[in-house]
Structure formats: C-alpha cells, structure tokens
Amino acid sequence: MSEPGPSDAYGETRPFRVRSSTAEWAAAILRQRVTEGGLAPGSRLAEDELTAELEVSRNTLREAFSLLGHERLLEHRLNRGVYVRVLSPADVADIYRVRRMIEGAAVRRADRDPAALAALREVVAEADKAAAEGRWSDVGTADLRFHLVIASLNGSERVNMMMAQLLAELRLVFHTMDPHALHAPFLPLNRELLTLLDAGRGPDAEALLSACLDQAERVLLATY
Amino acid sequence: MSEPGPSDAYGETRPFRVRSSTAEWAAAILRQRVTEGGLAPGSRLAEDELTAELEVSRNTLREAFSLLGHERLLEHRLNRGVYVRVLSPADVADIYRVRRMIEGAAVRRADRDPAALAALREVVAEADKAAAEGRWSDVGTADLRFHLVIASLNGSERVNMMMAQLLAELRLVFHTMDPHALHAPFLPLNRELLTLLDAGRGPDAEALLSACLDQAERVLLATY
DNA sequence: CTTATCAAATTGTTCAACAATCCTTACATT
DNA sequence: AATGTAAGGATTGTTGAACAATTTGATAAG
Fold first, then answer.
1. B49 C-beta less than 7 Å away from strand C
2. Nearest chain B Cα to A162, which residue?
3. Whole-angstrom distance, CA of residue A72 vs CA of residue A94
4. Which nucleotides of D are covered by protein (CB under 7 A)?
C-alpha cells in the first residue's frame, strides 16, 4: 500500500515527484493511522507536529486534511484544528440505516452478476483461511470486503463509493473492540448468505442480511 | 486585501465578519454559478481570472475548487486546470440507478413521517403556483425539492446529503434543456404520487415513482 | 504532411510572513 | 468563593511570491 514518495524513514530526501500528488501521499499515511487505530478518535492533529514529521508544507498537509475530512475520517473545526472523528451512537445507527438500504436493494435484485458471486466466494474463503490461522484482524477486513461486494451488486459506481466511505467510517469504531468477538459470529452467517444468493433465493437472503445488520448494529451500540 | 468592509462596487461582497472560512465563501459563489447555469458544463475556471475577481489568494481558491470537486460539480485534470463537470450518459444512468434505490426504499417504508407528508403537500402547492404563473424554472426547483423530501422519508441524514448531491449533479444537465418541456409532465405525476402516499398505498406509489424516474431518465438521455 | 524543438502560459508545490481566533492565566469586582 | 474581564501566548487562517513541472501552440526541419 505504501507508495514511493517523500522520505519513508527520516533522513531521506525526496527526489521524485510521484504521479499522485504529495497531498494524497500524506493523506494515505494519515488514513492508515486512523483506520488502523494508531490515531484514536478524538485525537487532535496539530499542523506543526505533522509538517515536521511528514516533511511536507503546511498547505500540502491542509490539503491532505481536506481529503480525509471529505471521507468523514477527520473533523475540521474552524480556528480550532483537525480532530479524528468520533462516531456517536446516532452516527452508527445512521450508517446501519444506509447499509440496510444499500445492501437490501442489492440482494433483492434479480439480475445478479456471476462475477460478483465469484468474488463473494473468494472473499468468504479468504475469511475462513484467516480465521483458521487466528488472524482476526484480517477476518474483519474480509468481512468489510464481503459487504462491499454485496453493495456492488447494485451495479452503480456511486453506490460503490458511498459504501466504501461508510465502511471506512465504521472502522473508526471497530478498532476499539476485540476483532474476534466482533467478527467471529458473522463468519457462518456470511457463508449462509452466499449460498442463499447462489440459489437465487432473494427474499431469504434479504431476511438473513437484515438480521445480520441488526445484530452488528446492536453489538456496536453496546460499546457506548 | 486593503479594506474588509462592504465597499465593493457590485456583485457578491465579502461579509464584514465571516463566520465560515474564506474558501467556503468562494466555493459558495462558484457553486451558485454552476448550479444556476452561469457557468456552462465544460467551461474552464482559470485561476488567474478568479483570484482577481473574487480577490482571494490562489491557495484559498484552490481549496474552494477542492470543495466543489468533492461535490462532483467541478472536475480537476492534472496540470490542465479545473472544469465544470460534463455529465456523460453513463453518469445520468448511474444517478438514476441510485435515485431508484433511495427513493424506492423511501416510499416502501411503512412508518411515514406526517411532517414529511405535510412538507410534500407544501412543495406540490408551490410547484402548482409557479406553473400557473409560468415560472418554469421555479417549477423545476420545486420538483427537485419534492424528491428531496421523498428521500428524507428514509430518516437518514447521510441519505439526505447523498440525495442533495445527486440532485445538484443533475442540475448540470438540466440547464441545457427547456424547463417547461422537462418539468411540466411531472406536475400531475407528483400530485398523484402524493395522494398514493397519503392513502398508505405503498406498492402503488412505488410503481408510479419507478415509472416517473424511468421517464425522466429517458428524457434526459434523449438530449445526447 | 509529419515530426521535433522551443518558448509562453498555466498549473503544482513550497515557503515565510502576517492576521484572526481561541485558550489559558491572572486579575479585578461583587 | 464565584463570576466576569483583560492580557498573552499558541494555533490556525490567509496571503503573496517564488520556483518547478507540465501543457500548449508556434515554428522549423525532415
């Protein structure tokens, strides 16, 4: 995931200008720290510290902040700085409302893309393998990808982007929990959902999906 | 920037005390020009011209560009500048795919907010009045608001924002058409949709809405 | 007619300075 | 003691200039 850019460790010059802008490079680093828990929700991101650490100008850093702000990972308060977003219970409820709409519409469709179903099988296998080896963080990643592929059944590029953003937001609250307890219950459920989709049993799939989302929302809201 | 006072000759002057950032102020002006047709799709927005006209620095203007780019109203081509977005037929089709999902889910819900139904009645009345007075541009605005309220039946803040952005995008192609021919057919349809919703006839409303969206999409795609 | 090369114009990025705002601390008043 | 107010220090907001990189258009050579 790390692209060539300015100094990876310190003491390194940055002779190359990458195809992507410097701001996107900085944003990628910050995004990783936020989604992987290095920066806890509520943390303040001071411009001074980060310009020194990332060795980019203040303007570039602020552009990176802007990018992550539009992804709802960072929150920008006027004259007060930038903070890692804190999800409220209302936010979690809202996100699951949207997920029910998007994923519900996806599984209800009659024309299912065989390629997407193949992708689902692959992701499920990936999750099983990770679970067998105890890599529960990877199980979580696979779970998110599973639902991203579900959403893609809608066949809309805009829906894909909305879904990706929703799941990125959810990561903010995921890494405050135990990955095993959070994701283990959904492994068999995802597998069953896949078989229902494969069999063309739309209504059953919709009901199961709805139950999955309800349960996930309950688990997350229980942490508050 | 010599004097911050409201002494500019004409046009939009910067407020004496800006509560929001300068970048958002500039973005608001450009957004208005784009959504109201002052800037046609495909137009280039040169940095030199706009920094002189708006009297903001290049950095601030570029931040405004960034904001509108994330709203999909402007398109940023590397080393080539910023252009008013041009919607492709695929874009229109995708937007209507999302609208069918969002608005379809909205009318299918059983728990309808009485306040929202009242808002729908108000918007329909507003559209009728504008039509009677020949203000077809306002009819178009009312039509968009009608569907925004429909979407709000989902009860999700994020869905509301998604819908607002979709409709802003659609305005880009609306301006290239005759407002009367575009919006007149939907006046009675919206009224009928409202009565169906009021009567709690969800499935009928869903069918009618689906027909409305199909027709609108056909009309828009016919312009290409 | 095609291709190569150069110069002008525009955008990409960074920097340093100043202005505006917020937060803390200390002081004064009741 | 509680409340309100006034520095001041720290941080963010905005600007203008400078230079690098890229595109564009014109010109010249094959």
1. no
2. B162
3. 14
4. 11-18, 21-24
DSSP structure class, residue A103: H
d(CA A86, C1' C14) / Å: 32
Structure tokens at B194: 């409202």
Is A97 in Cβ contact with B156 (below 8 Å)?
Answer: yes
Write out chain B residues lying below 8 Å of A104, CB-based.
Answer: 105
What does residue A198 show for φ and ψ, rounded to 5 degrees?
-60, -35
- Cβ–Cβ below 8 Å for B155 and A105: no
Q: In a structure prediction context, what are the per-residue pLDDT tens digits for chain A, which is 224 residues long?
A: 333 333 333 233 333 333 467 888 888 899 999 988 889 999 999 998 898 888 888 888 998 898 899 889 999 998 999 999 999 999 999 999 999 999 999 999 877 889 999 999 999 999 999 999 999 999 999 999 999 999 999 999 999 999 999 999 999 998 888 999 999 999 999 999 999 999 988 899 999 999 999 999 999 999 98
Strand C close to A23 by CB, under 7 A: yes
| Encoded tokens for B83 | 């252009």
- Interatomic distance B77 CA / C10 C1' (Å): 12
What residue ranges define each of the domains in chain A, with the CATH number in brackets?
22-84 (1.10.10.10), 89-221 (1.20.120.530)
C-alpha–C-alpha distance, residues A83 and A45, integer Å:
6
In the three-class reduction of DSSP (H, G, I as helix; E, B as strand; rest coil), residue B76 is classed as strand
